[in-house]
Amino acid sequence: MNISALKYGLRQGILSLRRNLWLATVTAGIIAISLAILGGFLLLAVNVGQMMRTIETNLEIAVFLEEGADPADISRQLAEHALVQSYLLVPKEQGLVEFAETLGDPAFLAGMEGENNPLPDLFRVKASDAQSVAALATDIRAFPGVEMADYGEELVGRLIGVTHWLNRLLLGMSSLLALGAVFLIVTTIRLSVVARQDEVGIMKYLGASNSFIRFPFLLEGVVIGWTGTLFAIVALGLGYEQLATSLQQEALTFFIRPVTDPALILPIFGGLLLLGTLMGGIGSIVSVRKFLRV
Amino acid sequence: MIELKRVSKSYQNCALPAVANLSLQVNRGEFVFLVGPSGAGKSTLIKLVFREQTPSSGQITFEGRDLSKLKQKELLRHRRRIGMVFQDYRLLKQKTVYENVAFALEVIGRPVKEIRRKVPAALAEVGLTGKEKAFPAELSGGEQQRVGIARAIVKDPLIILADEPTGNLDRNNALQLMELFETINRSGTTVIIATHAWDLVDRMKKRVVAMENGSLIRDEQRGSYGNEHLST
Description:
Distance between the termini of chain B: 31 Å
Number of helices of chain B: 7
Shape of chain A: rod-shaped
CATH architecture of the largest domain in chain B: 3-Layer(aba) Sandwich
Number of helices of chain A: 9
Number of domains of chain A: 2
Helix content of chain B: 25-40%
Radius of gyration of chain A: 31 Å
Strand content of chain B: 15-25%
CATH superfamily of the largest domain in chain B: P-loop containing nucleotide triphosphate hydrolases
Number of strands of chain B: 10
Structural class of chain B: alpha/beta
Oligomer: heterodimer
Order of helices and strands of chain A: HHEHEHEHEHHHH
CATH class of the largest domain in chain B: Alpha Beta
Number of domains of chain B: 2
Helix content of chain A: over 70%
Number of strands of chain A: 4
Shape of chain B: globular
Strand order of the largest sheet of chain B: 6-7-8-3-9-10
Largest sheet of chain A: 4 strands, antiparallel
């Protein structure tokens, strides 16, 4: 395509956008909404992923000893185990104090000191890595003198399950929204093509190439896609920044720390821009295709 | 230049073929009238030569190239060597006379310098100098068709294909346009005109190819319309 053809395409693309300004704006708005929702889902997925990693990394195995078991024996076995990163003995006396602090009412445990302490000695064990927690817990359960070893696998399993379904649901909803946006682009561009149907027909008779005819429409679609995506990115960026700041200030819990690393956030925004451009481009090509068959 | 060998063209949902086993040769620089009643296959023949349609059977060659075998780029080159003129002019209403003619060069990517040189020359050739800034709605039918002819000749085509170019014009305007086609033909451009204007055909004494029911029924040098118009 030479310079004059490029100029012509640009001029026609701009003219067409001006002519369909209202519909183009609505389409860009729908794209903005659908991509903002998709982007929101992706940000949520990144944050849930990080939260899961934090939970897994901080998982501790609580090893409860049998009555009369020697903590020194268990300690030795733990020290020799390859998957153990660290461990800490919590004697039952200390356990009782911690339990009382958790309840917030020391009087409740009155009379349970010394011989009457119902709690067993326990070890808090950390695995060398998150993936080894389950295997290490199984090994520890086989140690003589160990009553039980628990790391909240039910909770972790449930969290993984919920995350899995949440991701699927979000992906499905986002795909439907994106598909809807593409259909809307197709409709918008088709209206432009229909408005210029005579011109397109004449161009074919004059020997214009398909790429020459397609270019202004492609430009129109891509501009709509870009505009929508830029709105989505700006809204999402501002909204997320505000949310992240307020969450950090609240310091709600150790686990809810929003992802702010640009290396994780920027690829999402870049991906959205690419997706918006592709949606615009593909929508245009689909719309024009039928009219080029002369 | 153009050779049709036993060409047939059938459309879906039509019992009879639009063109049936037609063979025809047109040489460079010829002026040919295609005549015949409505539905005789004249327009289909023009579409086949333009390669808007492909034959159901038979072969059409243009400058020695089989039109059915043209690739996309060759098809564009083929169409750029043809100037099309339509009964309904097919001008763009929102463009001026100058812009309509320039459009023919713009869409095939010709440089601005060439456009500025050729468009006024084409408008002068069809007698529309001074009307450059007018819009089609401000012109008479004859003038609009002149714009259509200027648009066809501005890209220096090898051939002009005109489908009922005088169909919407009065006799006087039609005669002037036919004289314009003759002038264009004298400069070496081949001209093929499908028409019902029997009186003009008789008057101009050019080659006449008569069709009926998709078949060629008569091919005469310096011919006349014949009796076919009586059945239209």
